[in-house]
Please model this.
Amino acid sequence: SKAVLMWFNAIITNWTAGRAIEDERARQIPRQVPNFWRKNCIRAEMMNEIADSGDIIFFTSNQLFAGMQRLVTACEYDHTAMFLRFATGQLIYLESASNVGVQIFRWDYFFDNKLYRNFSRMAFRKVRCSRDLGKLGDLEQFVNSVRGKEYNLDLSTLMR
Model:
């Protein structure tokens, strides 16, 4: 659909932009993580502090089909989710998965249910943009328009 294609293009644009993060909370990571240059990780509690609506997390899944997808697409990641932050401060994420379709989940749910075991690697990308009420309203409208849709990806879709 057009909305999904726009979202995908926005992800690619931010992925390739990858310049310095302008969020002061994210700049604190090197000071808060000893020997940060030797570690390729952010603790879950740190993610709760720095992630905001629109930020992206990429996953490398442990599943065979995901490995084939990475091979065909020549990407190191095969799954993605977008963070959303409620006005209450609660961090959630939007994702599309074959068993549930497009849904939102609490970030705590990811750890409480040990879903991280399904992935060998995760990468966080801070989306640098203003998050004014208009943009957040548009994002909320997008989420409401895709939430509940069925997951629809198969090998023929990847080959297009």
In short: The chain has a mean pLDDT of 75. DSSP finds eight helices and five strands in the chain. Strands lie at 56-61, 79-85, 91-97, 101-106, 119-125. The first strand starts at residue 56 and ends at 61.
